[in-house]
Predict the structure.
Amino acid sequence: MQPVTAEAVAVDLDHRDEKAVRGAVALLAASVPDVCEGLVAYHATGYAAFLTTALAPPPTMRTVLLRAVIVDTAVAAVADWRLLDDVLFLNGIAVRATNRNQGHGSRLLDDGVRLAGHLAMSALELDVSQDNPGAEALYLRAGFTGVSQAWWSDVRADETPGKDADVRLLDWPLFTAHHQAYGFGDLTVRHPAHPAGRLRLVGAALRVPDGPVGTRLAGALTDVLRPTRVFTIRSTATATADGAFAAFTRMRLPLR
């Protein structure tokens, strides 16, 4: 990790600097809307360890790119980029409160555009909370436009717990090991109504697919996963969702 000079620059965070990675994770976790507290991987107890592991391969082999601005040897701002096919996705971005209004957010976005160009990506994408108009304005100024919306809603398991014999857990050992190590994990399930479904358990918060199949899976897995909260995310082009506790806009910046 390198300290900045008078002209702040974005640098790679290295897996060997665990203190910097922990600082970055703390910033990213704090940037999540309060209504989503405990529902995203940044809040998992072992997420810093997960990110440290994700940064262990050589930079040219990583699919997770953690870029940061360092001020006085501490992480002042961080951008968590993910390579998804030919899209560079901004999984999270955060600026420390004492370092805001210094252009670090724009600096990290510009850095992302340079990274995407270097990697021959077709576009950059990100999600922004609809309760954060300041961040949305920043992205609009950078050239992003909204392409869809995502609505987060709680789910009630109305099936008899553990009684859906059609559910099969395809990667249970891998999921269990990942959840035990890092505090979150993705579980692949097979169900006639959802042949290749993916669920995520963060702590004891379970995210299921949208619609009736999500409700059925929540009921079927209650005795297995023992979630304290179940929710779903529905993505649409324009429609709204009654009863949603959070709303996000997917934004995109085409590069070619």
Remarks:
- The first strand starts at residue 10 and ends at 12.
- Helices lie at 18-31, 47-54, 104-118, 133-141, 172-182, 212-220, 222-225.
- Residues 208 and 214 are 5 Å apart (CA to CA).
